[in-house]
Amino acid sequence: MSDSVKPAKELDVQGIVKRATELNDFSHLLEHVPYAKFIGMAVERFGDELVFRMPANDNNLGNPVLPAIHGGVIAGFMEMSAIVQLMVFMQTSKVPKIVDFSIDYLRAGYHKDSFAECRITRQGRRVANVSINCWQTNRKQLIATARAHFLIE
């Protein structure tokens, strides 16, 4: 290895998650996730619940005529929400790896703020299952629901 090529500095995932949880400020954690920054993702904690928010953003539109959010952006937002949920509540030392993700689109996600909440439905030693609900103006009128399985180490 030449002197000009240095190995990438390993990220202290557990330290970042611990700091975010202690300060109840998850913006520092999300700053380390390029996709979360790109879609403008934010998270608020209410007791033992995390509520994720994706603000209305012209870059997230898939159909500007309606205007509606691109389905892939909604799925990415929901997947990222599940990952952060696992990292916070399990105090992981590594980012969980997605094994399977299944989404049901229930209605159009219009050009307004979107929200997601996650529930860890099963957590084993190596795999965790998470259900995710996404809505806009009313929690009872979901725009999408998803199930995800993650490999945790």
UniProtKB/TrEMBL annotation:
<dbReference type="Pfam" id="PF03061">
    <property type="entry name" value="4HBT"/>
</dbReference>
<dbReference type="InterPro" id="IPR029069">
    <property type="entry name" value="HotDog_dom_sf"/>
</dbReference>
<protein>
    <submittedName>
        <fullName>Thioesterase</fullName>
    </submittedName>
</protein>
<dbReference type="InterPro" id="IPR006683">
    <property type="entry name" value="Thioestr_dom"/>
</dbReference>
<dbReference type="GO" id="GO:0016790">
    <property type="term" value="F:thiolester hydrolase activity"/>
</dbReference>
<feature type="domain" description="Thioesterase">
    <location>
        <begin position="69"/>
        <end position="141"/>
    </location>
</feature>
